[in-house]
Amino acid sequence: MTASVHIVGPQFSSFVRSVQLCCEEKGIDYTLGAEVDGRPLAMHSPEHFALHPFGKVPILLHDDRRLIETPSICRYLDAAFDGPALQPADPWARARVDQWTGILAGYVDQALVRRYLLEFVFPKGEGGAVREEAVAAARPQVARALEVLEAQLAEGDYLVGDDFTIADAIAAPMLDYLAGLPAAEGLVAETPRLVAYVERLRARPAAARVLVAPDLGRG
């Protein structure tokens, strides 16, 4: 049977991987890729803006429903499908998960992905070179974000206690990328709890199917 859940976006996107992780953790059948109804979707095309008014990914298509923004997509998948819960039942604990999804999708993503990692993946310097000045300028923000996560991980094995939640699904891809970047070794080494956390995330069966070497030629 064809999966009714389709994640629109290239698999190398950290946010696409977060949605994919939620599907894998819950056992949801899904398809994935930068195409809709079997047709390639050109990024920032009129067809793309018709699905997402700001031309971003991921976009979730579930039957005749469309949803955008990673935290909202992850919360919907958790509520709409059977499988292990990715949010606590307790209102305070759930609010704390929501808090960390917002922190990660906003501040941490900006520091780690937008201002740092993307300079290595899609360098904007002359002749396609990495702009060392941009990397140097971003490093203090990366260090600060890692310090915040390191402090939070003193509370448990995962970001909100000892159970994997949506917050961890959002954190995992960006931290996996960062931990695998040789240029970031010194930064990551300063946060031993975070290093152990990344290894814990990578050891999960769902992560083994999602945190794979990216194919940057797709989409």
UniProtKB/TrEMBL annotation:
<dbReference type="InterPro" id="IPR036282">
    <property type="entry name" value="Glutathione-S-Trfase_C_sf"/>
</dbReference>
<dbReference type="InterPro" id="IPR004045">
    <property type="entry name" value="Glutathione_S-Trfase_N"/>
</dbReference>
<dbReference type="GO" id="GO:0004364">
    <property type="term" value="F:glutathione transferase activity"/>
</dbReference>
<feature type="domain" description="GST C-terminal">
    <location>
        <begin position="90"/>
        <end position="219"/>
    </location>
</feature>
<dbReference type="InterPro" id="IPR010987">
    <property type="entry name" value="Glutathione-S-Trfase_C-like"/>
</dbReference>
<dbReference type="InterPro" id="IPR004046">
    <property type="entry name" value="GST_C"/>
</dbReference>
<feature type="domain" description="GST N-terminal">
    <location>
        <begin position="3"/>
        <end position="85"/>
    </location>
</feature>
<dbReference type="Pfam" id="PF00043">
    <property type="entry name" value="GST_C"/>
</dbReference>
<dbReference type="GO" id="GO:0043295">
    <property type="term" value="F:glutathione binding"/>
</dbReference>
<dbReference type="GO" id="GO:0005737">
    <property type="term" value="C:cytoplasm"/>
</dbReference>
<dbReference type="InterPro" id="IPR040079">
    <property type="entry name" value="Glutathione_S-Trfase"/>
</dbReference>
<dbReference type="Pfam" id="PF13409">
    <property type="entry name" value="GST_N_2"/>
</dbReference>
<protein>
    <recommendedName>
        <fullName>glutathione transferase</fullName>
        <ecNumber>2.5.1.18</ecNumber>
    </recommendedName>
</protein>
<dbReference type="InterPro" id="IPR036249">
    <property type="entry name" value="Thioredoxin-like_sf"/>
</dbReference>
<keyword id="KW-0808">Transferase</keyword>
